[in-house]
Amino acid sequence: MAATFHHGPEVVEHKDGVTVVRDVKSAVTYVNGTAPIHDVHDTAQKRAGYINKRMIVRSHLEASAAFGPHKAGYTIPAALDAIFDQGDGGTIIVNNVFDPDTHKDGAAPDPSKVTTQEINGTITPAGQATGFSGAYECYNKFGYFPKLLIAPGYSPAATVRAEMDVVAHRLNALAIADLPLGLTKQQAVEARGATGIANTSSARTILTYPHVVIEDTAGAAETRLDPLSSRLAGVIIATDLEQGWHHSSSNREIKGIVDLEVPINFYPSDYQNDTNFLNEAGIVTAMRSFATGFRTFGNRSAAFPSSSHVENFIHARRILDMTHEAIIFFLMNYVDRLGTRQNVEAAEEGVNAYLRSKVGEGVFYGASFRFDRTKNTPEQIADGRFFYRLECHPISVMERITVDSYVDTKFIADALSLAA
After folding, report:
1. Are residues 354 and 209 located together in one domain of the fold?
2. Is 10 inside any structural domain?
3. Is residue 5 part of a domain?
4. Same domain as 213, residue 85
5. Residues 216 and 271 in one domain
């Protein structure tokens, strides 16, 4: 480009090289279900803004004002309570599919009229996204996608769990799905079998069992059963915010529960623990031991035991997801720029600077990003295609700690000063 004529001093500001890779938001949850919106919004016109419209909630106060307090039969207020019980709930995107003017038993609003098809959702002929389909719109609307998907009360249905997994794959998220109420521990494991309702090997699905017992604030009974999935989501969020998204959410205290649907026995060195029985089938559970409180227990997604890849660890799958997405957003700065050596190497160094910081934070054992000079050919470069290679390994968790114990008579000789 020809220089513009100028007579006198000038400052030309250059911004090349200041773009950095930024972490994507991890503590974002998509809660899909039903809420008694008629209790807080008195007209159909007001209620329309809370039916299949993605709403952000960041506090108990916002949750109650938008979706009402917990009420028997409705899933969203209970799920939000469970998340906030664990601490700061991060960013929660709520999608209510319940319409009190449509889902009725006579004249009375009835959440049982909501179908699993409505929970799964679709894109209507008018272009409105409903149910889980609404999760696809979140980036364009809010600037980020949800990273955790839950539908307490509905996720035990195989069709809902399968749809959650589809959405999770498209959004690089994790779907947390409960196994049904009323299962014994053996039946929970059998659900993973060839004819079971949870026969999946997806690294993006976390299966939880059993349900938990909590205080019943809406009924005549003192306690009620509640899905573990929403409590686990809250623990993951709290761990993200307190320690970082590369930390495991296993063996962390769950707040707000008083018992489990079925007892889960645990003793640290016992191979016959119920926790081992469930974890080795790819099921995340809850347990308590002496003076521990109730705790999450399980590091593996439903990919285990079918897959031996590191991604079957929940924290490792999340590390890879957050890293890939951060790199993708950074590289958008280079899309359609000229393929000069300067731009090729600037992209390379920008990502490597990010990876070095993550190695320093204990996210990876090591990581590198380089322009692949072996895979790239002149023909591909001429066609506008550039290949880079990311190599890394997520930090491991100390899931199994083995002590080899030996009894050695040499210590007798040392203690009693015996002759050799």
Report:
1. no
2. no
3. no
4. yes
5. yes
What is residue 117's predicted lDDT score, i.e. its pLDDT? 98
Sign, CA torsion 192/194/197/198? positive
**Residues 385 and 285 reside in one and the same domain:** no
Conformational region of residue 126, where left means phi above 0, alpha means psi within -120 to 50, and beta covers everything else: alpha
Asked if residue 9 is part of any domain, the answer here is: no
Is-contact 369 358, C-beta < 8 A? no
Checking if the pLDDT of 10 tops 70, the result is no
The residue among 165 and 220 whose pLDDT is bigger is 165
Q: Which two tokens stand for residue 241?
A: 């915010």
How far is residue 361's CA from residue 110's CA, in Å, rounded to a whole number? 50
The CATH number given to whatever domain includes residue 213 is: 3.40.50.11780
Is it the case that residue 198 has pLDDT exceeding 50?
A: yes
Contacts (Cβ under 8 Å, ≥6 apart) of 396? 310, 313, 316, 365
Instruction: Check whether residue 260 and residue 164 sit in a common domain.
Output: yes
| Inter-CA distances, 390 with 159, 234, 347, Å | 35, 31, 12
Model pTM score: 0.93
Residue 407's domain comprises 346-420
**Cβ partners under 8 Å of residue 415, min gap 6:** none
Full DSSP string of 143-201: SS--SEEE-TTTTTSHHHHHHHHHHHHHHT-EEEEEPPTT--HHHHHHTTSTTSTT---
Over the stretch 68-86, which tens digit does the pLDDT of each residue have? 999 999 999 999 999 999 9
pLDDT at 78: 96
Q: Measure Cα distances from 266 to 263, 287, 290, 297 in Å.
A: 10, 7, 10, 10
Q: Bridge-partner residues for 366, per DSSP?
A: 393
Q: Which helix (H) or strand (E) holds 366?
A: strand 364-371
Q: Is 333 domain-assigned?
A: no
Structurally, how many domains does the chain consist of?
A: 2
Length of the chain: 420
Cα–Cα distance, 175 to 109 (Å, whole number): 29
Q: Where are the beta strands (DSSP E) in 235-363?
A: 259-260, 283-287, 295-297
For the residues of 271-300, what is the DSSP string, one character each?
Answer: TT-HHHHHHTTTEEEEE--TTT-SEEE--B
CA angle 409–413–418, rounded 5-degree value:
145
Same domain (yes/no): 153, 219:
yes
Condensed to tens digits (0 to 9), the pLDDT of residues 259-294 reads: 999 999 999 988 999 999 999 999 999 999 888 999
Give residue-wise pLDDT tens across range 132-177: 999 999 999 999 999 999 999 999 999 999 999 999 999 999 999 9
